[in-house]
């Protein structure tokens, strides 16, 4: 793309790289992994440190990301009406199912986890966390959102997404996905049948805003030994019920 500022792109690449290394990286390591000259890395790190996005360990001299990005993201999330509107209902849904409940919003071709209510189970699933991104096409929440977008938008998202077969159950055919989206519209809820992670099943439903536009989605997730196939319909009804309550809080009035 011609409108990309090279220095900004390189700085962001360094941030993305450092995010994968809790212990940090040295300048040489960053240069090698990011394919950048050592002097360029040094200059960019100086700016990132000055702006508070990167910090250097006084013990190891390695560089790692600070919490500033989390703080900035949290400010946006905290300002979302969806998060505050859903708090009571996601907690109650967790208590009624004793499984982890997630709230997500769409961001471009991905979903972003904006809230999570953990259950008190000894066997827990997923490494989800607030701020984590995931795919629309392979998650219950993502498919719940896709089902209520127009067909042209679904096709555009599919064409622009890096479609991967995460498990043997992952849908990688657009026609098959469209058939499932039709079923989701009929049932009012979506299922992730070990499509994103083996051993994990999720049931999700869409949340709508006052304009009747899909605002996000909620889901119940658990190991397949607890969230069995014969429980999907029951859980689907519960998730849909609470998604509808959240939608009502946002001013949605289903005709």
Give an overview of the whole structure:
The chain is of the alpha+beta class and 255 residues long. It folds into 2 domains: 61 residues, Arc Repressor Mutant, subunit A; 177 residues, Beta-Lactamase (2-Layer Sandwich). 44% of the residues lie in helices and 19% in strands. The protein contains 9 helices and 8 strands. The protein has a 6-stranded antiparallel β-sheet with strand order 5-4-3-8-7-6, sandwiched between helices. Strands 1-2 form a two-stranded antiparallel sheet. The chain is elongated and about 60 Å long. The chain starts with 5 loop residues before the first helix and ends in a 6-residue tail after the last helix. The mean pLDDT is 90.
